[in-house]
Amino acid sequence: MFIKILKSSLPALALLCSLSISPSAGASVLTIDNFTHVQTAIDRGNTVGSPTTVDHLTGTDLTNASRTFSAVASGTTYANKEEIASGGNVLKITNGGTSAGTASIVWNFDPINFTAHGNAILLEILSIDLGVQVEMIANGSSTSGVQSFSGPGSFWLGFDEFSDPAAFSSVNSFRLNFSGPAAWDGQFRVLATSFPVPLPPAFWLMGSVLLGGLGIRRRSTR
């Protein structure tokens, strides 16, 4: 009896499995930066060492990519430290206790269609202090507006949340502007274009209906 029920359930189970795979089917994550390339920019109020640029960026899927770090302390004394550094698959931003400055990253690269790889920007956050914000800008004009982080984890921002979503069909520059209160720190792991992982509510609703139907069919068979 169990084998008979299982055989009759296979089509529905196959559909359920295919639905669970479909949101990521055909997705190919485009890594903008995995932060393995070592680079540092620091400002202690006198702009020494900031900005810095690497012309042949590694740890990226972009072609002919360069990356510029900029750190701007909010004061003009040596103690007003603002630093941004990368290496070992981590991006670190440090704001001194007497500074509420800003840090920014700009990537320039050959034009590429971001929409062929996803529908959102993914920024993985290892640690972050409260009050830290980021603005993302594509092609120098399509802005996300200022966004707030709620804590560590995966931060997703859809292309449709930018002022000009059409810009993502041909992107040649991307920028992150970080800001926050004095004495904040943040660590990030990877920046990429991808499809958000969470499945749509419709999937779970359909799945529950399918499983519920299987239960009813099993009871009626008994």
General description of the model:
With 222 residues, the protein is an alpha+beta fold. It contains 2 helices and 13 strands. It has helices spanning 2-21, 201-221; strands at 30-33, 39-43, 52-54, 66-72, 82-87, 90-95, 102-112, 120-128, 133-138, 142-148, 153-158, 171-179, 185-194. The strands form 2 sheets. Strands 1, 2, 5, 6, 8, 11 and 13 form a 7-stranded antiparallel β-sheet that branches. A hairpin with a 3-residue loop joins strand 9 and strand 10. The longest helix is centred in the last third of the chain and has 21 residues, at 201-221. The protein is globular, with a radius of gyration of 23 Å. The model is unreliable at 2-26, 202-211 and 216-222 (pLDDT under 50).
Short description:
The chain is of the alpha+beta class and 222 residues long. The protein has two helices and 13 strands.
Please tell me how large the radius of gyration is: 23 Å
User: How many alpha or pi helices?
Assistant: 2
Note the beta-strand portion.
35-45%
Terminus-to-terminus distance: 9 Å
Overall shape: it is: globular
Q: State the order of secondary-structure elements, H for helix, E for strand.
A: HEEEEEEEEEEEEEH
* Mean pLDDT value: 79
| Biggest sheet character | 7 strands, antiparallel
* Low-confidence parts: 2-26, 202-211, 216-222
Q: In which range does the helix fraction lie?
A: 10-25%
Structural class: alpha+beta
Q: Total number of β-strand segments?
A: 13
Comma- or semicolon-separated keywords:
222 residues; alpha+beta; disordered N terminus; disordered C terminus
